[in-house]
Every structure is written in structure tokens, then in C-alpha cells.
């Protein structure tokens, strides 16, 4: 199933599937995703020594529309108790992470990734599936989650509106997440905002340059 090289796959018709439980196999993914359309290939990267997969895989469909459909209907579907994270494979390359990353604390154990998405997507575009830190053995929530927006306007609004509000009858704290490998520095700095604005201007110039002239 995973013998086809990456460069030979139809990336536009391929879905990334993450947060896979250890017992999920390529055969099971194939069977699950054929409900969305004919599947061409399934590939799950594995450790060469142990043979265990890394918790994610790729599903290639015959046509792009089936991959689009799978990304919509299969995201957050639970498999062996773990909510799947399903995105179009090309999506993460097209959308840059500008640092508009939000931390949500004091989450009720009943809050799952889908509820986070449904709640926070009202403030702006979320560029990757929300995550909740869970106990590696039991899968129970540790009470903290993360949401990544495509703009600081969206993350600012989410923090302003949701900090101190109740989610599943529990008051949550919402603020900018700590930067990776830092215990004190948080996202949302002036430098990040300036860089994000420059990136946006560059993308707009590139988009304008590719538009047909009359």
C-alpha cells in the first residue's frame, strides 16, 4: 500500500491523517476512507527497527473531490478513542504559521478537539486541527489545548472574547501560547506581527502578479 514514492502520488488528491492510535493499520485506514471514495494508496511511515508507525499517514484518492470530501467529514472522527486529524496534504504548505497560536487552559475533561474547533473557528481561520494534551496511557485530557489561527486579528479576538468564559461549565483561560523551547516568551510579539504583515504583503504582490491582465 505504501510502495508508491511521494513524488509519484497525486498530492492534490491526498489527505494527511494524524493522531492515529497505535493499533491502526494501513488496511484499516483504507477500509475507513473508502467510505469517502475510491482509494489509490495508503502510506503510514514506520520505525525501521520496531515497525511501529509514527501516528500519522497519508491516504491518496483517485480524484481530488473525494479528498476534499474526506477532509471535511473525517476530521475529528474518533478511531479507537482518538479523534483523527484530517487535512488536505497540500494545505499545510500553502498556509504559513505566522505565530497566531493560542493556549487554552483549565479545559473540562469533556471538551474535545471538535468542540475547540467549533468554538474558536468563529473568530477566524484555523490553519491546523486544534490539539488537546492527553495522557499517553489513558488518553484523558490534561486540561490544556492549542489553536493555531492564520492571523493575529483572529487570535486577538479569540483571546479577548473567550478568556474567562465558560466552556462545558468550566471557566477557561485563553492567552498566547509559549514559543517552542521557551518557558517565558509567548507568541504575539511585535516582531511576529511585523513579520506576518510583511508575509501578507508579499503574498498579495505574488497573487497580483499572477492575475491575467486585460
CATH architecture descriptor text of the largest domain: 2-Layer Sandwich
| Text of the CATH class of the largest domain | Alpha Beta
CA distance, first residue to last residue: 48 Å
Mean pLDDT: 87
The name CATH uses for the topology of the largest domain is: Alpha-Beta Plaits
Residue share in helix? 25-40%
Determine Rg (CA atoms, Å).
Answer: 19 Å
**Tally of separate domains:** 2
The SS-based structural class is alpha+beta
The helix/strand order is: EHEEHEEEHEHEEHEEEH
Question: What strand order characterises the main sheet?
Answer: 2-3-1-6
Low-confidence stretches: none
Question: What's the total helix number?
Answer: 6
Largest sheet: 4 strands, antiparallel
Number of strands: 12
- How large a portion of the residues is in β-strands, by DSSP E? 15-25%
Keywords:
214 residues, Alpha-Beta Plaits, 2 domains, four-stranded antiparallel beta sheet, 6 helices
Which helices and strands occur, and which strands form pairs?
Blueprint: E1 14-18, H1 26-33, E2 39-43, E3 56-61, H2 64-73, E4 78-79, E5 82-83, E6 85-88, H3 91-94, E7 101-105, H4 113-120, E8 131-134, E9 141-148, H5 152-162, E10 166-167, E11 170-171, E12 173-176, H6 190-210
Antiparallel strand pairs: 1-3, 1-6, 2-3, 4-5, 7-9, 7-12, 8-9, 10-11
Main location: nucleus
Protein name: Splicing factor 3B subunit 4
Region (Disordered): 180-214
